[in-house]
Inverse folding.
């Protein structure tokens, strides 16, 4: 009888945890919403070329979308999924619908004092980063500054 009780408790915890995790993800996504400017970016541990930085005017986060806005106003959206309960908090960047053959890019993120740091694998089969150094060979790091701080 004790095994059965433990099994029922485990199932109840698992079922109860999923909605709580979804709520935490929705709350975290709401906290991230806003318009950001690109402060720094590195690829493979090296600073991104200046030309690449000029290609990105700003980033807008709304709902479950991360939208890169180019200087000409053209938007390049990508989806994302958060797991703020992971340590560090996890983000999966989901390629746009026209690139459905690509896998999500696993990453981590943190928001501190209006500064959003995201480190993610540049390939869908990359390992999820474990720190915010962004110095892995196939890692990209972006530091974004929120324009509309609250």
């Amino acid at each position: 009888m004790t095994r059965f009780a433990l099994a029922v408790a485990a199932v109840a915890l698992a079922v109860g945890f999923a909605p709580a995790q979804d709520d935490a993800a929705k709350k975290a996504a709401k906290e991230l919403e806003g318009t950001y400017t690109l402060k720094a970016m590195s690829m493979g541990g090296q600073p991104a070329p200046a030309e690449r930085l000029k290609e990105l005017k700003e980033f807008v986060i709304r709902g479950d979308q991360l939208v890169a806005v180019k200087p000409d106003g053209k938007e390049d959206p990508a989806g994302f999924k958060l797991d703020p309960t992971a340590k560090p908090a996890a983000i999966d960047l989901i390629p746009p619908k026209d690139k459905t053959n690509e896998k999500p890019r696993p990453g981590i993120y943190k928001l501190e004092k209006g500064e959003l740091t995201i480190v993610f694998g540049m390939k869908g089969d990359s390992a999820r980063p474990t720190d915010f150094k962004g110095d892995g060979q196939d890692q990209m790091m972006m530091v974004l500054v929120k324009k509309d701080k609250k």
